[in-house]
Amino acid sequence: MCIVLSVTIRHTFLGLLEQQPRHGYDLKREYDERFGSDRPLHYGQVYSTLSRLLKNGLIEVEGVEPGDGPERKRYTITDAGVTDVADWLSRPEKPEPYLQNTLYSKVVLALLTGRSAADLLDTQRSEHLRLMRELTKRKAAGDLADQLICDFALFHLEADLRWLELTAARLDQLTKVVTG
Amino acid sequence: MTERRIVTGWRRWAIDLTTGFRFALSGGRSGVVRTLLTTTGVGLAVALLLMAASLPTVFQERDERAAAMSIVNDGMEPAATDHTMVVADVWTDFGPIDIRGFQLQPDGSTPPVPPGLTSVPAAGELAVSPALAQLLESPEGELLLPRLYYPVTQVIGDEGLIGPNYYIYYLGADDLTAGDGAYRIDSIGGGGGDVLSPMLLLLGLTAITILLLSVVLFVGVASRFGSESRDRRLAALRLIGADRAMARRVAAGETLLGSVFGLIAGVVFFLIGRQFVELIELWDISVFASDVTPMPALVPVIFLAVPILTVGVTWLSMRKLIVEPLGVFRQARGQDRKVWWRIAIPLIGLAIMAPVALGGEFTGTEMDMISIPVGIVLALVGVAALLPWVVEVATRRIRGGPVPWQLAIRRIQLGGDGAGRAVAGIAVAAAGAIALQMLFTGAQEEMTLRTGISDDSPAVYISSYDDEPDVDRTVAELRAIDGFTVDHQYRSVLGFKQIGDDETGEFYAADLVIGDCELFRQLAEVTDCGEGDVFVAQSYANDQLPPAGMALEFGDDSVEWAIPEDMITVQALDARITGFYGGILATPSAVDQAVVDASSIQIRGRTDASKPDAIEHVRNLLEPTGDWQQVSVTGSVLRDGTFDGIRRGILAGVVAVMTLIGLSLIVGMLEQLQERRRLLSILSSFGTRRSTLGWSILWQVSIPVLIGALLAVIVGSVAGMALMNMVSVPVMLDWSNMALMSGMAVLMALVVTLLSLPVLWRLMRSDGLRTE
Amino acid sequence: MSTSLLTATGLRKQFGATTALDGADLTINAGEVLAIMGPSGSGKSTLLHCIAGIVPADSGSVMYQGRDLVAMSDSQRSALRRSDFSFVFQFGQLVPELTCLENVALPLRIDGTKRKEAERQAREWLDRLEVTDVADHRPGEVSGGQGQRVAVARSLIARPRILFADEPTGALDSLNGEAVMRLLTEAAAESGCAVVLVTHEARVAAYSHREVTVRDGRTRQAVGALND
């Protein structure tokens, strides 16, 4: 669970930084506003994520404000970081339950970084469908228990797809809201 | 929150009905057409009903006038006073026309005046009926003038005529003697009336019944128009909150308006049609327009019954509909078609007619006048009810066959719709027409008139009065007439004897014919004949000849002559010489001169068919002299125009009905094709050829039509036979007519198919597959 | 490397002022099941109609066996439809007055096959689609799922190369829909018939090998779409 979150946090920070260079507290505030909802980030998480990103060369420090503390540093994204974000956005997620947070993040970030959210959604849909095909094949060959399990997954995948379609249909609206 | 007052009771009814009225008038083009058609249909029905209600009046009025003008010799011989008159019957024939005539010679200054006259015409003056006046003035009437060359001083008014086309004249005379071919009367009227053949009454009733049924069918079929938009309106009503009962009332209101308008239209149609009645002349019967007045008691009945019936039918038909806010659904047909009532209806109809039909006695009583139309209606309605069942049974077993056939049979099996109803309508119209034609054919047989014009040579019979005319000169003049041949001439006299009184006594009579052997050989099977021989020939009616030796009284003067003992019995070749009682053939020397003097002269001749005027010349030669009785003619008769006219009329009626119903068939077929347009596209998408579907439409239309035609022929013939039997007319089947009706039905099926084909082909195009 | 059966390129179609297709492309390979997906109003039905030759496109080409459907006359396209293509719709495609057996036999009978032989083959197909019992019933008397299976049987009996199905399970519940899709794809595979499936339901599209998305009159192939 934490790992999932941190992956998302990592990429979210990268995306936010791709949009513009920011301070640490700035990043936390943005994250909380857009994605945190009822669970604000700990400062500890923020710093550990930032240091890992620094270590991997995906971000660098641009400048330092007068004062103490890591939150005073201003960070900016490197080319490697941009590539990482691009890869992440264009790569579909493995379809599985509770994907919506990740997908939502991806859509918003795509919009923030000026990329095509529609393509992202389409790619994800294809991936979902691919998995649904496999499940359908397995269903045809399996026994009743297999069928029940497969149907369960299929229905959830379908629900995801519905959301994806609905989101795709709302993109224009969403763009206005996200980019202000 | 405003409170809505719930309106109940009769105000609710009034509102709903009024809504229905508005719908009837504002339902768009199809709604207006529907209301118009209903109005027309109901109007026609009302007009027909009013005509039917007028039939008794027609008969009664004619009867009364005929009675009022009857001049009869009742044998009373009143004494001559100021109020008496001597009259003589002087009717004559002119071609096919019966002309009644009377010579009037008043005894005093206040004689009885025949109705229609202001006064008895003076001697040598004529009072004629308008029709006769017209005839005398026309070129065709020239041959009549020699008999009626007197000046016309009066034209008889309507109250003195039985019908507008009645031919009658009154001639003032001054040379009549009561007892010598004339008789004295002291009053006119009070005698027998105009007894029209019950046949005619039956004819009238049947024709009107069948017409009425056709109109009802038409209304039923017409109500299909615009039914979709009406259903939509009703569904919309339900959507805004009307309940089922309210929807029914609105539908009833729609029909009510149409039927009320129909009542008004019906009265108008009736009044117009009435005027045309005077133009119709069936055989020799014509009717005054003023006679055509409905019986007062029946008029309110009709005015109430028609709207109630039409609304009632709507009410009943609404029971099978489920009007829901989302649409109108027809209740699915119950799978079990109860067969028994379908067969029962026509059987009941025939059973009602059976007592009269089998008994051969349609007497025109009230019971008959109701039971016969009812029986006919049930029989014909039975045809309509039987048709779907027969179609179903006939097609039940069929499975295979080529594709068009299969499609058509299956479609028919799936159940009829408007098409079934429409075909039933055709079957009823055809059956009615067949029955009516058969009845008319029979009527024609019975109503044949003496015309003197025929396709072979009719026989002409001339008799003299007792006075001795110059026979030889007359015969010579007769022979001089171009187209007339004299066959025989002889003398005859009737002799009779009554022994005892009227009640218990015996009565003997015989016709005595005096002529030569030459004559007898022609009139009877006489081989050996010599002067002085007497033969006797029995009549078919009476086998009791007077015994030999009995003295009969002959002629007006009752000259006695005894029947000789040695009469030779022979067979008569000509029934006329035996008369009713039997005939005695005597050579002149076998009878006394007194008997010869008492006898009258008989001349037999023949006219040539190619010279129709010949008989008029004969009449003109003989009748004005006063010595000869009216010339009588027998022989076969050419069809006169009446029969053909009626035949054509019935045909026209059937064609009209079939066209109407054919139209509705077409509309139904086109609707069906539109409904199935998607299916048609799909069918064509996997290869169904246009011709395949075209043929299937043909079968689909033809099979019910053919079955309907068959049923129509059967039921129509049975009904026709029953009707003919009712009035004792020899029953014969009218094959040509049946073939004609069937042919028309088939033609109609073909036309409907052909007209549907273009629409079918248009719908089979590929872009019907698009579902938007 | 499998054979491309039908290739549509750059299809454009306008209905009055509305542009239904704005440069759509599509390839159908032999024996595959292709799903065409997209929101309503996207033009997917129009795309289907164009590639099936029901409606001629305004411009572009649809190559089938070396011939361009767009350039053909209506009768030529109809002939092609009769011989090589068949259709299954959401509803309303069976002749209501014929029995199911007779419905399935109809395409053969129209081509001249004798009734006995046609009905024998029809029975086989009804068996294959697992609706043997409804043979003597009328379409109005059977359930939606059974009716659709009968429609599938009828569409496959004449051995078409491509079966076009427009929302075939649209009017059915989940279980019936699944059954129909399973049997349809199995039967088509047995006959070597390609299937083009227009649907907006993902679980139905899951029976396909690949999908094409239509949006605003344009097509989008699935990422990484490979020939099977």
Spell out the key features of this protein.
heterotrimer; A: 180 residues; mainly alpha; Arc Repressor Mutant, subunit A; 2 domains; 3-stranded antiparallel β-sheet; C: 228 residues; alpha/beta; Rossmann fold; 6-stranded mixed β-sheet; 4-stranded antiparallel β-sheet; 27% strand; disordered C terminus
| Tally of separate helices of chain B | 19
| Low-confidence region ranges of chain B | 449-454
Write down how many β-strands of chain C occur, each being a DSSP E stretch of 2 or more residues: 10
* Terminal CA distance of chain B: 43 Å
User: So what's the oligomer here?
Assistant: heterotrimer
> Briefly, what CATH class of the domain at 4-97 and 161-220 in chain C?
Alpha Beta
Helix content of chain C: 25-40%
Q: What is the rounded distance between the termini of chain C?
A: 8 Å
CATH architectural name of the domain at 4-97 and 161-220 in chain C:
3-Layer(aba) Sandwich
Spatial strand arrangement across the major sheet of chain C: 6-7-8-3-9-10
Task: Give me the secondary-structure topology.
The complex is a heterotrimer of chains A (180), B (772) and C (228).
Chain A: H1 2-19, E1 22-23, H2 24-36, H3 43-55, E2 59-64, E3 73-77, H4 79-90, H5 100-112, H6 117-141, H7 144-169, H8 171-179
Antiparallel strand pairs in A: 1-3, 2-3
Chain B: H1 9-26, H2 28-68, E1 85-89, E2 92-94, E3 97-106, E4 126-128, H3 130-137, E5 152-155, E6 168-172, E7 183-185, H4 198-222, H5 227-239, H6 244-277, H7 298-319, E8 321-324, E9 327-330, H8 340-359, H9 366-396, H10 403-414, H11 418-446, E10 459-463, H12 471-479, E11 484-499, E12 506-514, H13 517-523, E13 534-537, E14 551-554, E15 559-562, E16 568-570, E17 583-586, H14 593-598, E18 600-607, H15 614-622, E19 632-634, H16 641-675, H17 677-685, H18 690-726, H19 735-763
Parallel strand pairs in B: 3-6, 4-5, 12-17, 13-16
Antiparallel strand pairs in B: 1-3, 1-7, 2-3, 4-6, 8-9, 10-18, 10-19, 11-12, 11-14, 11-18, 13-17, 14-15
Helix pairs in contact in B: 1-2, 1-6, 2-4, 2-6, 2-7, 4-9, 4-11, 4-16, 5-6, 6-7, 8-9, 8-18, 9-10, 9-11, 9-18, 10-18, 11-16, 11-18, 11-19, 16-19, 18-19
Chain C: E1 4-15, E2 18-29, E3 33-37, H1 44-51, E4 59-64, E5 67-68, H2 74-84, E6 85-88, H3 100-110, H4 115-128, H5 144-156, E7 162-166, H6 174-191, E8 194-198, H7 202-205, E9 210-215, E10 218-221
Parallel strand pairs in C: 3-8, 3-9, 6-7, 7-8
Antiparallel strand pairs in C: 1-2, 1-4, 4-5, 9-10
Helix pairs in contact in C: 3-4, 3-5, 4-5, 5-6
